[in-house]
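User: Hi! I have a protein structure encoded as tokens and I'd like to know what sequence might fold into it. I'm fairly new to this, so please keep things simple.
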């Protein structure tokens, strides 16, 4: 399960409204970075050797359609090698 919220200047954390991105446990999703509404994750969802995907969490994003795989593969799963970590440096993905 993965949720996001827009950070505001509110002093009351209890008033934050969270939006479902991934409503159920379908794999591990490690946040890498985002550019606006495009979020990049290191994941084992449908990839036992891991891959990097992008999810565009725009205003009309519907987490109920998660089974239709809204993920865009940025770095595909390698058939033999495990993608153990991904970082960002200078706007570039480092694997």
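Assistant: Happy to help. Inverse folding works backwards from shape to sequence: for each of the 95 positions I chose a residue that suits the local structure. Here it is:
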């Amino acid at each position: 399960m993965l949720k996001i919220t827009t950070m505001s200047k509110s002093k009351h954390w209890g008033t934050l409204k969270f939006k479902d991105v991934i409503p159920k446990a379908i794999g591990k999703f490690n946040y890498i970075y985002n550019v606006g509404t495009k979020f990049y994750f290191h994941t084992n969802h449908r990839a036992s050797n891991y891959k990097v995907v992008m999810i565009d969490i725009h205003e009309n994003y519907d987490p109920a359609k998660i089974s239709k795989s809204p993920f865009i593969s940025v770095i595909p799963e390698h058939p033999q090698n495990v993608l153990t970590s991904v970082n960002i440096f200078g706007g570039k993905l480092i694997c």
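A useful reference point when you look it over: Residues 55 and 71 are 5 Å apart (CA to CA). Feel free to ask if any position seems puzzling.
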